[in-house]
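Hi there,

I know you've been waiting on this one. I reran it after we fixed the sequence typo, so this is the corrected version. Both the input and the resulting structure follow.
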Amino acid sequence: MHRKSAVAILTVPAVVVIALAWQNAASQSRTSSETAGVGAATAAAPVARLPWGEPDLQGIWSSGYIETPLERPDEFGGREFLTDDEVRKELERLSVQQDHSTGGSAPATPRPGDTGTYNSAFSGRGRDVIRTRRTSQVIDPKDGKIPWKPEIRERVAKEVFTNTGTRGRVRGEDNERGGDGPEDRPNDRCLGFALPLRFGAWETGGAHHRIVQTPGAVSIYYEYGPHGGAYRTIPIGGGPHLPPHIRQWLGDARGRWEGDTLVVDTTNFTNRTNFEGSRENLHLMERFTRTAPDLLMYHAAFEDPTAFTRLWTIEIPMTRKGDKENQIFESACHEGNYAMTGILAGARARDKAETAKRSR
């Protein structure tokens, strides 16, 4: 339905000369995060800095094609990390849903009556176990659950389709959500990137970020699956937020440094924002900390007294991609694509057939 080029970022490993101390820190980070299951490197290490003294966060970063659920599935109880055996089984599960284009075993032939769709290389299907091996993205509260207000929990449950074939909650396909027109088909509308970013969803793909820094500002480019990309420029150094009556699609961001961590405070979202039931009252607080040459730890905290009973936080490890290609391949989408006419015509034909059955 969408015109796409490859979602996957193609990289060639760069040859990087780094200080021995940082090499040791990177090794410790991989051991603790990927083998022992802890969230980030704990050893102190020198931080690469830009000419004006700020920590260097620049480069292309990706969460990987993860399917780690936002909330912790009940099967794990209060356990935060996967065991070695669970990692193995998860990798096997992910392999089964991929075809040969990404090394999986799923058949590439279309279903009967299907003209064929994108192969695994063109989709955002999960391929990776999250680098920290966490059982959920939510790390606070400790139970890994979103602290919704009861009425918001009910509203979100109606908006989100639960797919029992995978862990967690996903957006339903448009045909499963129903609707009478293009406005009711969010997966086809190409509405564009929105904050907060939803990690671990097929539409997010690898959640590729490109970070560029200048004195006084940080710019982030987000590539967001079929919804297209977006640029976000964050002024550094504080300053007040915009007046409350001025609202912006990506909110109003203000950045500051707390030690070697970039802290981004964002308010002034619009009433079109819809993140787990939170709308224009959302307060987003993000923290970017480079803990190793190839590891950027991302934490996002969400606050909205109209939707949640308390502040809650997610953690995503971002891995640096090679700089030689220095390119993120676009996953393009556009309004009014030619498939829309056929989609709606098919839906009306189905309605007509169902009406005929009922009238017999």
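Quick highlight: The chain is about 20% helix and 20% strand.

Best,
R. S.
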